[in-house]
Amino acid sequence: MELKDIGEFGFIKRFAHKFDKLIGKEEMGIGDDCALLPLNDTETYVVTTDLLIEDIHFLKTKITPEDLGHKSLAVSLSDIAAMGAYPKFSFLSLGVPKQTSVEYLDAFMNGYQKLSEKYHTPLMGGDTTKSSDKLMINVVVVGQCKKSEVRLRSMAKDGDLICVTGNLGDSAGGLHVLLNNAALTGESESLVKKHHNPEPRIKEGIWLSNQNSVHAMMDISDGISSDLMHILNASQKSANIDVKQLPISSLLQNMAKKYAWNEIELASSGGEDYELLFTVDRKDIDRLHKEYKSRFTDEISVIGEIKQGQAEIKWFENGNEISINKSGFNHFANS
Ligand SMILES: [Mg+2]
């Protein structure tokens, strides 16, 4: 058996349970956007780590070192946002091919530092080592949160509405532009910018976790078709999603028309949007929608509802059940 046969999550399943007995009361390990490490009676640290590898997660010829520095930290900050926490510290480890120019590394650190400054999150340590020929980037971020405000994937309730912040699919559209070497016009460049410069939803996550009606929450890194399954598995619920309700920017709609992209597929399975996916008590949705809109530059969209039943997503279009590519993004699959 090879890793591609079982995938990332199949691999994790083989060993995760062996650590359960070592994990203390109120601590939480593998299985959510962050681990929980209680700090005192009322607060907890949340910790996340991400690994980015050249040619797997990024193409060095397509992203500037400054954007790469930004994105390396942004993807981890997004996991902090997903818990409803604020970031405190980061750690950065790099595996660097020795012919890499110092100017490249300076620009990388510049992008990393600028985003650190924006969220008052100092770099506290890490490691730098030689790598044979690919650049490797590992980021750890520690955040903090009131225990009562932590939002987990396991918190979805029957009848909850399923919501997302912002738009879906822009980042995947940007990746399409890069991989197809499409002409860089104003429109295509904006999509590429979404792909290279994701903005972590820290403020939005903190605000949402302050609302009692917001139940489960996570960030969208692989696309809702795969990410929502994590909420459904953890909460032991089913979901109905209406593809007509997926928030797709007019920018992506225009580009999809122009290049014959499937915008529904990009919005549901494209990934790297780093928006928040959460479930809400439907009685509070109007107030939540209004208050969110008055505080932030974008909106929340209702895309479906949580149902009783085994963990699966049913997709609907104009009331009719449809099937879409549900594979999401498996890092070890053949294609
Ligand atoms: Mg996440």
From TrEMBL:
Protein's UniProt keywords contain Translocase: no
Keywords, in A-Z order: ATP-binding, Kinase, Magnesium, Metal-binding, Nucleotide-binding, Thiamine biosynthesis, Transferase
Annotated positions binding Mg(2+) 1: T49, D50, D127
Domain of life: Bacteria
Residues covered by the PurM-like N-terminal domain: 31-144
Similarity-based family: Belongs to the thiamine-monophosphate kinase family.
The protein's name in its UniProt record: Thiamine-monophosphate kinase
Gene3D superfamilies to which the protein is assigned, alphabetical: PurM-like C-terminal domain, PurM-like, N-terminal domain
List of residues binding Mg(2+) 3: D33, D79, D219
Domain named PurM-like C-terminal: residues: 157-310
Enzyme class: transferase
Listed pathway(s): Cofactor biosynthesis; thiamine diphosphate biosynthesis; thiamine diphosphate from thiamine phosphate: step 1/1
Membrane-spanning intervals of the chain: none
PANTHER family, per database record: THIAMINE-MONOPHOSPHATE KINASE
Reactions catalysed, as given in the entry: thiamine phosphate + ATP = thiamine diphosphate + ADP
CDD domains named in the record: ThiL (cd02194)
GO molecular function, one term: magnesium ion binding
EC number of this enzyme: 2.7.4.16
A Pfam family the protein falls into: AIRS
Binding positions (ATP): G126, D127, R153, S221
